[in-house]
Design a protein that fits this description.
The chain is α+β, with helices and mostly antiparallel strands. The chain is 31% helix and 18% strand. It has eight helices and eight strands. Helix 5 packs antiparallel against helix 8. The longest helix has 16 residues.
Length: 248
């Protein structure tokens, strides 16, 4: 997926417990690129693929939009493929061979240590810490990283090779899941940046009646209701997806 780059983010040499105090929001310089949404948007706009199961969402609207929910995730084959690879790599992570040159998901050990360090923090501080720590990794486009236009990476693949915007959102999603957050509280959102006129992907989390943005180009966790330059197209978790519509 081509998207906004956190161009100044650097991959850490080693993991460490994230500082829980996050400084004011700072936009990282974006890389002007296109967003590979055409196939997905064509697919999910079809009522037949939704199977007639569309329902109005009962949670607060992401970026103050109206939402329609469906449970047919088959159009999202890259999301489904990533979930399958993540399930497989999670099972083998504990016994991974972390010798030099190994392709095993060795980042899981450091990931687990980081999560253990914030496991008993408040949920708000968990959001701050996860957003800050994952944003330390460097941005790299799928073309340079994988030789394809759009690749959705698992956490293990992200730790080994970093990634682009949806990969940042994915690793934050699974970080919070491992901290005990439910699927109902988390979504990955494909958005259009109306200022830059390009596409992007972010994570949102539902907490205390608000929808919070975790973004690889924004240091601060922000209430989506205060952001007008992102137009959500669809959002997704492991059980549902949502089509978003502007309020009239």
């Amino acid at each position: 997926m081509r998207c906004i780059a956190a161009a100044s983010a650097k991959k850490p040499r080693r993991w460490r417990r994230s500082r829980l105090l996050v400084r004011g929001a700072t936009l990282i310089r974006p890389m002007l690129a296109l967003f590979a949404l055409t196939v997905i948007l064509t697919a999910v706009s079809s009522p037949a693929l939704a199977g007639g199961q569309l329902q109005q969402a009962s949670v607060p609207g992401v970026f103050d939009t109206l939402e329609v929910r469906a449970d047919d995730l088959s159009p999202f084959y890259k999301w489904q493929s990533m979930l399958a690879r993540y399930a497989a790599e999670s099972k083998g992570a504990a016994d991974a061979d972390c010798s030099p040159g190994s392709t095993a998901p060795c980042g899981y050990r450091e990931w687990g240590a980081f999560l253990d360090g914030i496991r008993h923090a408040s949920r708000w501080r968990q959001l701050l810490a996860v957003n800050q720590e994952m944003n330390r990794h460097r941005y790299i486009s799928d073309e340079l990283n994988w030789g394809v236009e759009d690749f959705w990476a698992t956490p293990g693949e992200f730790f080994a090779r970093s990634g682009d915007c949806e990969d940042f959102a994915i690793v934050k999603y699974f970080s919070l899941k491992r901290l005990g957050w439910s699927d109902d509280e988390l979504r990955i959102v494909a958005v259009r940046d109306l200022k830059l006129r390009i596409g992007h992907a972010v994570l949102v989390a539902f907490l205390d009646g608000k929808v919070w943005l975790l973004d690889n180009q924004v240091r601060q966790v922000t209430d989506t209701a205060t952001i007008s330059y992102y137009q959500p197209v669809y959002s997704i978790n492991e059980h549902f997806w949502w089509r978003h519509h502007a309020r009239s």
